[in-house]
Design brief:
globular; five-stranded antiparallel sheet; about 40% strand; single chain; mainly beta; about 425 residues; about 5% helix; Neuraminidase; 36 strands; five-stranded mixed sheet
């Protein structure tokens, strides 16, 4: 393991006030204005835009905005309930895209019930996070003032279409095509790669995932130096050493339709990663960096690197292997001044998650802050975004805050962290 826990990590583990005071709540959700904030923020001109998975007028999620200084919070749009609502609901992971003068996002459920998966009970936000509503999901766009909500694409599911998009698609270098992943649908019912024009036309199913080569992908696709798609799946795959797969890192060439597995995670192994939930690969100088929720020395997750060509896979840090460290990272990594910043859903001084960083040149690892469900929120599971100067980080927690002090209602917070 290249990274070592630094002095800053030890300071946070002791609960030193100067670092703790750098973590502030900008807004605490109360259920009516949103709840279970699982995604990431999109920064546009000093304003932060985000979504919640539930809460709002129909308890089916919201789109909101808030200024970087914490002022001007507004719930812009409440998703409607139902699996056949034609518009989608319960948006989950990653950030919306800023596309022209509109925000583009993905709703995990709702839309239509054509070829729908078996129904499961929907939970109540007052007693914990809900599970599933019917429907195959949708891609949507909305103006930054919350007006003119439009469905870009309703997903149909079934063997020839996509279903259940946990994350929005990625914009290709040509600026005209969106590429995305879904966790269901396709020939094997195990997820798809798809393409669609930014105007909503030209949907194409590019690849159907299967258990043998990795399935149920979450997250956002990345583009390598040749424009090929790089991504990860949550489950399965075929490890070279035998045993069960914990997901794969893959590459897909749109021009040739070629799908390749670059690395298969070995489930339950301490020398490998295991289960990337919805993160994406951050590519820096031909090397991709990401996290897994499990695996590593303590089986509590890893930060790893792999070259674009699939060679030189390395575990850079094993989470949860030392006192005060974070555990089980779900999201992706933010690059700032040679450091990679991220969050963990668990661990830290209070067991409610951490904010950490890792330096590419040198491999130093530091825990910058520990979350506390009563004051700052709990269980951050998605990505961070920085202000224009790169000195302040913003993100979301799934639970906790002033109206959810024991983190049982899964309301969550918008938080800010000022870098030392």
């Amino acid at each position: 393991m290249l990274a070592a826990v630094g002095l800053l990590a030890a300071a946070v583990a002791r609960g030193d006030a100067p670092l703790a005071s750098r973590l502030e709540v900008l807004h605490a959700f109360d259920g009516t204005d949103g709840a279970w904030s699982r995604g990431s923020l999109t920064r546009v001109g000093g304003v932060l835009y985000g979504r919640t998975a539930v809460g709002g007028a129909a308890n089916s999620g919201t789109v909101f905005r808030i200024a970087e200084d914490g002022s001007g919070f507004a719930s812009l749009y409440s998703f409607s309930a139902g699996g056949d609502n034609g518009s989608g609901n319960q948006p989950h992971h990653n950030a919306m895209l800023w596309l022209g003068d509109r925000l583009l996002g993905a709703a995990l459920y709702g839309g239509n019930q054509l070829n729908d998966q078996p129904s499961r009970v929907t939970g109540d936000v007052t007693s914990g996070p809900p599970t599933v509503q019917l429907g195959n999901g949708a891609l949507f766009t909305i103006r930054p003032d919350g007006s003119d909500y439009q469905v870009l694409l309703e997903l149909d599911g079934g063997p020839s279409a996509s279903a259940l998009p946990h994350s929005p698609p990625a914009l290709a270098p040509d600026g005209r095509t969106l590429y995305g992943m879904t966790s269901s649908g396709g020939a094997h019912g195990s997820g798809t790669l798809y393409a669609i024009g930014t105007d909503g036309t030209g949907y194409r199913l590019l690849h159907s995932f299967s258990a043998k080569d990795g399935d149920q992908p979450h997250g956002v696709l990345a583009f390598d130096a040749r424009g090929r798609l790089l991504g990860m799946t949550r489950k399965n795959g075929t490890p070279t050493g035998g045993g069960k797969g914990g997901g794969v890192i893959f590459r897909f060439d749109v021009a040739t339709g070629t799908y390749e597995v670059l690395h298969t995670f070995a489930q339950g192994e301490r020398t490998d990663g295991d289960t990337n939930d919805h993160g994406f690969l951050r590519i820096v100088d031909g090397v991709a960096y990401a996290t897994t929720e499990l695996g590593g020395e303590a089986l509590q997750g890893t930060l790893f690197s792999i070259r674009e060509d699939g060679s030189d896979f390395r575990i850079l840090h094993s989470f949860g292997a030392s006192a005060g460290d974070g555990a089980q990272p779900f999201g992706s990594l933010l690059l700032l001044d040679g450091w990679l910043y991220g969050t963990t859903t668990k661990g830290g001084a209070n067991g409610d998650g951490t904010l950490f960083r890792w330096r590419i040149a040198g491999g130093e690892y530091e825990v910058l802050a520990s979350f506390d469900r009563r004051t700052t929120g709990a269980f951050p599971e998605d990505d961070l975004v920085a202000d224009a100067d790169g000195r302040t980080l913003y993100g979301l927690t799934q639970a906790g805050g002033a109206d959810d002090p024991d983190a049982s209602r899964y309301y969550g917070t918008v938080f800010r962290f000022t870098l030392p």
